[in-house]
## 1
Amino acid sequence: MISRSVLVDIHRSAERLARTQAKLSSGREISRPSDDPYAASRALSLRSDLEATRQHQRNISDALAWQGVTDVALGKVTDTIQRVRELTIQGASDAAGPLARESIAAEIDQLVEALKQEASASYGGRYVLSGTATQTRPYDPGPAGDVYAGDGGTIAREIGPAVAVNVNVVAADLLGSGQTAADGRLLHVLRDVADHLRAGTTAGAEALRTTDLTRLDANLDELLRLRAASGATGNRLAAAAARLGEVEETTIKLLSETEDVDFAKAMVDFSLQQNAYQAALRSGANIVQASLLDFLR
């Protein structure tokens, strides 16, 4: 009975020593859920929250890159429209002759193609201004390619639990589908400007000074509105990224406090348990000395 009792105590001491040694070697307070069911459940929940936070960060990173490409494209479109406005004013002047107006019309034709090229801006192999049809080029070269080929869908990125932000701009809302659609958008207006310049008539010059310039200014205002909205979205994404960075840092700290071992405490425990184990072995050797042969003498 004494021998069994000593062996049980030594075995328990060895188990405690082994558990502490396992904590030191793994760096984890919890090796299996049975070590601490509550802490294990909390660690799983924190890990799930951390992964969700990091996924939202990846979504924001992708959205910011998407916004950056969109903003560059809209900026170049703005520069192009400013140039078209200057040319329209020049062409509407009575001092401009037929050759000058033909040259201006030819330049505007090239600027139309430049607009369609900027509308084909892409990010990661996806067209950013084609709505949800990101594999479809929004406009093809040439007058026949003025018809918008994408769709009007919106692309959203989730930046938090049940929080999504639309990140795309649809080219058709700005450029339209040309003269055939007669939608008053940029491609329609610019084609009309080129036609009025080539007409070389008083009515054409008057249309340039009144109708065309008014429609250009209206489209320019819409372009500036879209750029402002895109900028506001970018600011919101940047603020969300900063907030998620703080959330990630806090979650990592809580997770470390929950499942990481306190090495200073574990080293002290290991030293004490090792000494206790050695003492148990020595005391057990001293207690269980008599054997059957001692009684047979």
## 2
Amino acid sequence: MTEFPKRLLVAIVLIPIVLGCVWAGGPALVTLLALASGLAAWEFYRLAEVRGARPLSAVGITWSVLIPVVVHARFLGLWVPPVSVVALLVPLLLTVALFARGSDGGPMAAVGITLAGIVYTGGMLSFAYALRYHEFVVDARGGLALVLLPVVVTWLNDTGAYLAGRAFGRAKLMPTVSPGKTWAGAYGAVVASVLTTWVLAAFVLPPMAHLTLRPVGIVVVGVGLSLAAQVGDLAESMFKREAGVKDSSHLIPGHGGVLDRVDSLLFTLPVGFVLLGSFLVYRP
């Protein structure tokens, strides 16, 4: 089977599952985010290991999986971890590194890479839960709409970059990291993101969530999400180029790895949460 049919078949299977989990929220959404976080963390640590690093992968993957679970528990009021408890993660990692790596096993790099992987994967993906249960959300339709906004903008941002890059691309944006990306593509991505944000704010958010964005909010959210998506994509490309691999893994047929699918979302979900919280307005 060629790559395109594989990609299409996987998309047909996965998209309804993801939409259903976001709509259902609660345990279904937490399970999806925990699974994605754990797999993304595993891929991230594998990329680091290719370059000779020795992260504390088991600890990092476990914490990445637990972050969405803790966020859910906090939402339910079952347990609200104070900052002091969260801060204990660093002493925990140092303790594990002391016994598992010692002074000759690169303990500083192990702790740094492990901590970065936890925040980069589980920490960032958990913002999907925060959007689903945003303070402005009143039901499942509204929660789905808010989660979909950065997801759809990210997808069409990539489309705008591709089309503009093919039509007008000459000057390379960052050839040492991603040789195919151009400045024209970057500008096209921004335009596509702003237009997509406008369409969603005008025709999707009002009926589904009773929310909208004023003109300045549309521009700020659209530009912010576009820049976040592009930096997120470039960041993962940087990791893969350093590791000398094309894909983060081969877990998803035709699509590469989990990180390859969520690299931009790891940036747009938290940025979207912050910007939407600042610019959303109620629309009866």
## 3
Amino acid sequence: MKSVVVFGLGQFGRSLALSLSKAGADVMAVDKNEEVVAAVAPSVTYAAAADLSNADAISGLGINNMDIAVVALASNLAASILCVVISKELGIPYVIAKASGERMGVILKKIGADRIIYPESEMGERTARVLMSNDFLEYFDIDDNLCIVEMKPRKEWVGKSLKQLNLREKYRINVAAVKSHNEMRSSIDPNKPLKENSDLLIVTERENLKNLSKNMK
């Protein structure tokens, strides 16, 4: 189970925290607004009200054992900088920061953020899906039921063909295309062994993703 701290519970941060929690992650949600924190608290592992522009307040949250930190404070550059820097100082291995524009993104990247996102409000769930598996590269909803996931093949899949793996029966997923050398091909030879550097474009029902993620850990 992955542990994630989400700094900032605006529309994006709240959506992300709730989606991660539903997907089975251990989520700490933090915001300075006590009412917002209280509203989210029943749906996450732990919720805390803290002044994210105060270094001591951030350090005192006990986040040093978290796997991922998400800084969703695009409207507050100073607080975003503090959260990124302190998260890295405390040893959190992967820090994602939301930026309101390219200039802010450059600054956050320079001070240690591993990934910068410029999300629309509806992207919280998509980001949650990507974070829940080390193998998921991208996630897109097609409708309320179907989705597309781009992912790396698992180690045990490499060297085996799609026919051998029988992914449709085992995971209820359909490989729609395979990308190799930055070129996506929908014409797939089911007898051709998968390569480690290939990306798979998979179409599946959303309810199947949780089992797929569990089997990847």
## 4
Amino acid sequence: MKKEIAIKWINLLAFAASLYVNYLSVVTQLGGKSIRELSDKYSNLFTPANQTFAIWSLIYTLVFVFLITQFFSRSGEKQFSNSFLFLISCALNAGWIVAWQLEYIGLSLVIMLALLAVLARINQQATTEKGMLQKIVFGVYLGWICIATIANVTTWLISLRLSIPFSIQIFSTLGILIVAAIVVGWVMKKLANPFLAIAVIWAFYGVYVKRLGDVPEIAYTAMAMAILVLLSIWLFSIRPTGR
């Protein structure tokens, strides 16, 4: 029991520390540029509209609510309390911000992939939990990181200063959108968690808004993929597999 309580406090403190790093990135601009300025510097056709990133406020709010409810959880719900996965996710979250703002793009991609793996594992645990809150919180979180990972890959390619014709960039972005929607649908099915769709649909909508004026084919594809992700909740009849 003491160990469980200690981990709950450690998780809460780790979350506070990651929020503080986020705060520093905004106030002090660790590498001399804000996250938005760096996003604009490495802008590509997959980057959504700036306002799309406001979803972090929702994610952090959901995580905070979840961490507080952990102190009032029933004794039978122990999996999350006995795991250091959330602590690791906080460290990776903060580490990504530092790497990104110092423009270590390759390192930021490695960290993002690690965060993706940790959140996937947390979501796997959530399929065996009785409560719904963990599935909602970390489903939304994982959904956004799925999209952020793809964006990080495209940013890394931009940082390599490859000379890619614009027509090829358009074609590649269309392919990325389609593959992303299919993969997310499969992940929702595998994890029996439809809440990934919230962040993914929002991200696709952000791409739609950003590209409607200059590359409409990407905008309409993004909207179509958002609808596909929404429909996949019903098509796959979200339920655990292999049980």
